[in-house]
Amino acid sequence: MNKMNRRSAITLGVTAATIAPLFATATFAKTKKYGPKEGKEIAPGVRVVEVGTGNSDIPAYKSISIVDVVFQPGAHAPQSVMDNDMVCTITSGAFTIKKADKEFKLKVGDMYTCSKGKTDEATNTSKEVGIHRIAILVPA
């Protein structure tokens, strides 16, 4: 396991503190019922809905964009390369996430991260509409 140095710990803390208020609105996503045509379809049964954008106080990022990725039951987002660093939380449903070096399962309230240039794919394994709330960190 890699050791975390002081600079990494501070960066992680600042990132978490900046993003936390944005995820405080995640309860909105749990109660919001998206229509079948809202947002932009990126795969069969998978749509991206823009939630909002804000400025970032993290020097490496100029802004943070929040989107909800809405998955119909059983829908699959095929493997894709991440354009930006991202922090994701599950606000509805249950998912299997596949990365190049691992696979894991997530449920409501779980969080994970994606790194720019890395691959990721997701499948909604629940019988309900699943939602990923994603904070996209836009570089400065």
Automatic annotation (TrEMBL):
Keywords, ordered alphabetically: Signal
Signal sequence annotation: 1-29
Listed InterPro entries: RmlC-like_jellyroll, RmlC_Cupin_sf
Signal recorded as keyword: yes
Entry protein name: Quercetin dioxygenase-like cupin family protein
Source species: Mesorhizobium shonense
